[in-house]
């Protein structure tokens, strides 16, 4: 009985003051209670680690697994920009220019473009694989075309001359952006072409035979057309918005900004080295940097120099946005052509709907005309019923004694009915109620 009572009663909770001691108290095996538990590992396993395809400037690709916070620090992006690349959510097409990266979300292509690499979400989609292969091919061809410029003692000068004089030269980020735009425009144009191939025969069949099945197929086709038009319109508006804003286009020159930043930090390190001297200590009493006034002066000079360099870079980049503007304009023409194609298809569908409505109205008018004629004929025939009803009355008339009287009554009634029917037809023709 005592044993049963102990099993039924709840266990007494341990005192709060002993919880900390019990957590670090060694067990019977001599180990601590939480010894060997990797809390950092548990935290890392809770983060969203995703697979990315990395393509560098040489065209080399590799698959890396990076969590969200590491990617934010690596590309200097906020969380809302990475949320645009989440495949679990459906976001409209977007191209965002940031300080160190370009966030691209164009149909199946969702990537982050840096000055020296492209980070693409790893996917089994054929368009993603085609994007990687096409980008590698273009980077490899560009590397082979510029390889001859790197030979000789004046390799850097010849490379700069080639980059400034070649009309086909584009920085790495613009090449990656161009492949993304080309892939998105080709994907949308392919879908528009497939929709056209399916739409025109179906609409022609509907005009020849109006049925419930054909109407349902046209309804589904129009729903797909509206959805595709909305997607194409969003890509077109995004490109047009970038072309209208010079500041956004200037923000996308990542290679130029990185080069100026490297030059700025190189100048700062050179100034710091020359200010300390080759054999003097920084803390020497004769050094102006060691004094507080000297440090303030150097800090103010560095801030002023950085502001001046940033203003110069922004001004020069704003002046040299023609290459990006030409790139966007080329694909704006392509996507606008696709939109015009979808608009023409939509107008053809609307014309077909108007034609079907006209046909239905014509059939409805014919039915009304037939109903009108039938009502008139019924009215004329009803006259014979009235005459038969009159002669069927139970009262005596001298006309009933004539043997030919009923025959003449029928003849006169028929002639009157024909005259009334013709009068109705003339009235309908006079009022243009039906073509006669």
Automatic annotation (TrEMBL):
> Which terms in the Gene Ontology molecular function aspect does this entry carry?
magnesium ion transmembrane transporter activity
Q: Where in the cell is it found?
A: Membrane
* SUPFAM superfamilies from the UniProt entry: Magnesium transport protein CorA, transmembrane region (SSF144083)
Where do the record's region annotations for Disordered lie?
278-318
UniProt keywords (A-Z) are: Coiled coil, Ion transport, Magnesium, Membrane, Transmembrane, Transmembrane helix, Transport
Q: State the source organism's domain of life.
A: Eukaryota
One GO cellular-component annotation of the UniProt record comes to: membrane
Query: Any coiled-coil ranges, and where?
Result: 218-245
Q: Which InterPro entries does this UniProt record tie to the protein?
A: CorA_TM1_TM2 (IPR045863), MRS2-like (IPR039204)
Its membrane topology is listed as: Multi-pass membrane protein
The record lists the membrane-crossing segments as 372-393, 405-428
On whether Transmembrane helix is a keyword of this UniProt record, the answer is yes
Q: What Gene3D superfamilies does the annotation carry?
A: 2.40.128.330, Magnesium transport protein CorA, transmembrane region (1.20.58.340)
> Compositional bias (Polar residues) at which positions?
278-290
- Chief localization: membrane
Keyword Cytoplasm part of the UniProt annotation: no
Role according to the record? Magnesium transporter that may mediate the influx of magnesium.
Q: Which family does it belong to?
A: Belongs to the CorA metal ion transporter (MIT) (TC 1.A.35.5) family.
This protein is called what?
Magnesium transporter
């Amino acid at each position: 009985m005592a044993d049963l009572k102990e099993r039924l009663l709840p266990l007494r909770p341990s005192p709060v003051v002993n919880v900390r001691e019990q957590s670090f108290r060694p067990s019977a095996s001599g180990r601590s209670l939480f010894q060997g538990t990797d809390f950092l590992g548990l935290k890392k396993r809770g983060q969203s680690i995703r697979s990315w395809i990395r393509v560098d400037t040489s065209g080399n690709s590799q698959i890396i697994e990076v969590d969200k916070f590491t990617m934010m620090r690596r590309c200097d992006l906020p969380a809302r920009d990475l949320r645009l690349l989440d495949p679990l959510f459906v976001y409209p097409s977007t191209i965002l220019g940031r300080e160190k990266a370009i966030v691209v979300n164009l149909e199946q292509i969702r990537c982050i473009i840096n000055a020296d690499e492209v980070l693409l979400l790893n996917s089994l989609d054929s368009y993603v694989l085609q994007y990687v292969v096409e980008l590698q091919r273009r980077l490899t061809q560009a590397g082979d075309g510029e390889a001859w410029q790197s030979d000789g003692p004046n390799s850097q000068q010849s490379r700069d001359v080639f980059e400034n004089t070649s009309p086909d030269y584009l920085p790495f980020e613009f090449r990656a952006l161009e492949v993304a735009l080309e892939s998105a425009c080709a994907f949308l144009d392919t879908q528009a072409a497939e929709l056209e191939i399916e739409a025109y025969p179906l609409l022609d069949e509907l005009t020849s035979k109006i049925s419930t099945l054909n109407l349902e197929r046209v309804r589904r086709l129009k729903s797909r057309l509206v959805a595709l038009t909305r997607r194409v319109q969003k890509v077109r508006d995004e490109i047009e918005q970038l072309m209208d804003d010079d500041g956004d286009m200037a923000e996308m020159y990542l290679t130029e900004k990185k080069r100026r930043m490297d030059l700025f930090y190189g100048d700062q390190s050179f100034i710091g080295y020359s200010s300390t001297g080759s054999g003097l200590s920084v803390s020497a009493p004769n050094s102006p940097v060691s004094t507080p006034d000297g440090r303030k002066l150097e800090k103010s000079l560095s801030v002023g120099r950085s502001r001046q360099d940033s203003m110069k870079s922004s001004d020069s980049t704003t002046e040299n946005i023609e290459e990006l503007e030409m790139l966007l304009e080329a694909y704006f023409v392509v996507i606008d052509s696709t939109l015009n194609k979808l608009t023409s298809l939509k107008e053809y569908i609307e014309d077909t709907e108007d034609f079907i409505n006209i046909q239905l109205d014509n059939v409805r008018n014919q039915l009304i005309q037939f109903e009108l004629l039938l009502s008139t004929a019924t009215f004329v025939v009803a006259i014979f019923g009235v005459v038969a009803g009159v002669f069927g009355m139970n009262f005596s008339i001298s006309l009933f004694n004539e043997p030919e009287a009923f025959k003449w009554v029928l003849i006169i009634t028929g002639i009157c009915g024909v005259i009334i029917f013709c009068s109705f037809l003339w009235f309908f023709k006079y009022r243009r109620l039906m073509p006669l």
